[in-house]
Amino acid sequence: MTPHQTRNILICSGKGGVGKTTLTANLGIALARQGVRTAVLDADFGLRNLDLLLGLENRIVFTAQEVLAGSCRLEQALVKHKQEPNLALLPAGNPRMLEWLKPEDMQAIVAMLAPSFDVVLIDCPAGIEDGFKNAVSAAQEAIVITTPEVSAVRDADRVIGLLNTHGIKPIQLVLNRVRPKMMANQEMLSVNDVTDILALPLLGLVVEDEQVIVSTNRGEPLTLGGSRSPAALAYSNVARRLQGEDVPLPDPAKMGRGLRAKLSRLIKTKIF
Amino acid sequence: MASQLLLATAASQPHRLSLAAAASATGSLVAEVGYALGALPPRGEWLSEELVLATGDWPLTVADLRELEPLLLRRGLRLVRVEAPAPEALVAAASLGVVTQLQRPGDGAGAAAHEPTAPTEPQGLGLTIHQGTLRSGDHLQVEGSVLLLGDVNPGARISAAGDVRVWGRLRGVAHAGCQGNHQARIVAMQLRPLQLRIAEAVARGPEDLPPRGYAEQALLVDGAIAIEPAEPIWGLPD
Question: Mutation test of the interface with chain B: which of A150, A153, A158, choosing the one with the most B Cβ atoms within 10 A?
Answer without folding.
Answer: A158
